[in-house]
Design a protein that fits this description.
With 285 residues, this protein is an alpha/beta fold. The protein has three domains: 83 residues, no CATH class; 61 residues, no CATH class; 63 residues, no CATH class.
Amino acid sequence: MVSSSHEAMHRLFQEDPGVFARTARALGHSFTDPVEVSVLPTDLTEPSPLERRVDTLLRFDTAGPEGSFLLAVEAQSKRSDTKPASWAYYASYLYTKYALPPVLLVICHDRATAAWAARHVDIGPPQWPTLTLRPLVLGPQNVPVVLDPDVARADIPLAALSAITHSDHPDIGAILKALAGALKSLGEDDASIFIELTEQGLGTAPAATTWRELMAVDLSFFRSETAQKLRGEGLAEGLLLVLDQRGIALTDDDRARITSCTDHDTLTAWMTRALNVTTADELFQ
């Protein structure tokens, strides 16, 4: 049951809202007197289900000073003016639901988005923000550039993150080669996971084509159907690139024949011929 003391403490501000500004000024905070005050509904329950999803949510239990905490991971590809409010909602909701401190981790592809996401966003009047949102941001500005295959082999997930966040780096070719070499130390199933995640993370960047070409060559130690498919797709794209760069005219049927071919030996033979042929007919002989 709510006590009369509880009621008096907050209802006083309904009777005379201006008491807030006067009291705040007495404490040294420069709030001005209101021109108008509206009494709003006090029920904060969502009237209908509101769907909000964080990209990844993990609970960490440690023996260190941080103890147990939640890690909410968000992938952000561009600036969004609505995101800070959503992230603040996530943090508040997670703290309420799990009674554990949340950490918001934001992963970005480019420096501009990373700089925007890393801002400390104050929620509340400038004189006295009620909440300050402080994301921990990873991106090209602070993720290590992994060029050494031995370093990549020691931490393959970090090497994959390096490739994804540095897709526009001048040395992206060396980054991808280091990762490709490191994957040979894994079993086929584990390697396939990082192969797929890296390709997805590179998206439509030119580095994605480089990655597929590397996989077509460096996955020769795998023999599964999945690896064969990756090699075939990579060789087909690489073959088309070579032919285009050499100025070999291809019809739509020629291109379809190349991209639909799933035989690795045939694609390899065509790739070898592509370096010397002058016409598409010579390629397919």
